[in-house]
């Protein structure tokens, strides 16, 4: 395992980048802790695969350095970094059996055959392919081949890091859950440094100790799932995490009050005078329908999703999502909404503002 340090790291695919928007990955400084499990989460094109490929050695960054346990590996080839990488689409040797595909990384490093056989059997059980070990890879389904790729990435215990680039894209939903569980167990048992790229918040939040949220080539927040949900550092995090995401309303903040469309709502803390684009952010879970208090809303529809109901409402022309308990009776007169002051976040130019 290794501690991975990113020092003044940035990358552009242009020969002479001059502006911030020329960079696919904007400047980043961070230390990935030895033995931790990280998820790189963001929409397509946000820079997460670029960052992963720099860590793996498939890309040399335009600027900055990458260090493994303090050793500069910025220009070192992938083979010298002692990592395992699993890509979005399966990479297998079609002429080999499943057994030989899984064994290849170990045999390539001269491990004893008894150890190879034991480890291959363990990994085959983990990915549910014990009964297919003697089948040729050619002719297997795409998800079976991807399971082989995952297994080959996990078969070595001595790697500095395990890197996964959207590895469950072609896997069926039930097997995704199984493999995520197995990856968590692998991390718990062996303590590999793991970095997992995904656009799926469920995958990220269930897999990682810390989630790295990326937007427009920039890391906008690194935190635990709880931190991302309760205190999004950027409006994109609030919008992207959660289903539905955070409600965002234009606001004028003054001390312990915020004026939003439709009226004034109290805040749990005092805020200084703010300039720029000021917004109030509140999760749908932290809104409550009422007949007598709060802001007047128009309810457009109610969606029952089993565990709760999502109330789609409108506040002075702004969409507002409210999560109501499954057993709550929503009467015709419940046309007002109350915001929980303790769970409100304030943003200026998209970045969260701390109370004074």
Automatic annotation (TrEMBL):
InterPro entries, A to Z: AAA+_ATPase (IPR003593), ABC_transporter-like_ATP-bd (IPR003439), ABC_transpr_FbpC (IPR015853), ABC_transpr_MalK/UgpC-like (IPR047641), Mo/tungstate-bd_C_term_dom (IPR008995), NA-bd_OB-fold (IPR012340), OB_MalK-like (IPR040582), P-loop_NTPase (IPR027417)
This entry carries the following GO cellular component terms, namely: ATP-binding cassette (ABC) transporter complex, substrate-binding subunit-containing
Query: Can you give the residue ranges of the ABC transporter domain?
Result: 4-241
Annotated SMART domains = AAA
Tell me if Metal-binding is a UniProt keyword of this record.
no
Q: Mention one GO molecular function.
A: ATP hydrolysis activity
Write down the superkingdom of origin.
Bacteria
Q: Which UniProt keywords apply?
A: ATP-binding, Cell membrane, Membrane, Nucleotide-binding, Transport
Query: Which Pfam families does the UniProt entry name for this protein?
Result: ABC_tran (PF00005), OB_MalK (PF17912)
Family from the record: Belongs to the ABC transporter superfamily.
**PANTHER family hit by this protein:** ABC TRANSPORTER ATP-BINDING PROTEIN (PTHR43875:SF14), MALTODEXTRIN IMPORT ATP-BINDING PROTEIN MSMX (PTHR43875)
- The identity of this protein, by name, is Carbohydrate ABC transporter ATP-binding protein, CUT1 family
Which species is this record about?
Paracoccus tibetensis
């Amino acid at each position: 395992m290794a501690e991975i340090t990113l020092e003044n790291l940035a990358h552009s695919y242009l020969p002479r980048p001059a502006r911030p928007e020329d960079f696919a990955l904007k400047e980043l400084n961070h230390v990935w802790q030895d033995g931790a499990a990280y998820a790189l989460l963001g929409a397509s094109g946000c820079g997460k695969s670029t960052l992963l490929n720099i860590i793996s050695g498939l890309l040399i960054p335009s600027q900055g350095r990458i260090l493994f346990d303090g050793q500069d590996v910025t220009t070192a080839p992938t083979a010298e970094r002692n990592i395992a990488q699993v890509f979005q689409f399966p990479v297998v040797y079609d002429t080999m059996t499943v057994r030989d595909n899984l064994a290849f990384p170990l045999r390539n490093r001269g491990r004893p055959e008894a150890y190879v056989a034991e480890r291959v059997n363990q990994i085959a059980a983990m990915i549910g392919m014990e009964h297919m070990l003697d089948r040729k890879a050619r002719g297997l389904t795409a998800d079976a081949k991807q399971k082989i790729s995952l297994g080959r990435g996990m078969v070595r215990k001595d790697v500095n890091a395990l890197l996964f680039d959207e590895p469950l894209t072609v896997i069926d939903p039930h097997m995704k859950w199984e493999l995520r569980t197995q990856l968590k167990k692998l991390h718990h048992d062996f303590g590999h440094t793991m970095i997992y790229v995904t656009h799926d918040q469920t995958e990220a939040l269930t897999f990682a100790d810390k989630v790295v949220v990326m937007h427009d080539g920039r890391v906008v927040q690194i935190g635990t799932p709880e931190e991302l949900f309760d205190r999004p550092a950027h409006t994109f995090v609030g919008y992207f995490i959660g289903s539905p995401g955070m409600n965002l309303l234009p606001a004028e903040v003054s001390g312990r009050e915020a004026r939003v469309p439709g009226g004034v709502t109290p805040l749990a803390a005092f805020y200084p005078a703010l300039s720029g684009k000021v917004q109030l952010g509140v999760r749908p879970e932290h809104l409550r329908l009422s007949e007598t208090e709060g802001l007047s809303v128009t309810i457009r529809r109610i969606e029952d999703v089993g565990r709760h109901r999502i109330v789609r409402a409108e506040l002075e022309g702004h969409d507002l999502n409210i999560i109501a308990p499954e057993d709550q009776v929503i009467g015709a007169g419940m046309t007002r909404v109350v915001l929980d002051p303790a769970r409100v976040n304030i943003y200026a130019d998209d970045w969260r503002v701390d109370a004074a």
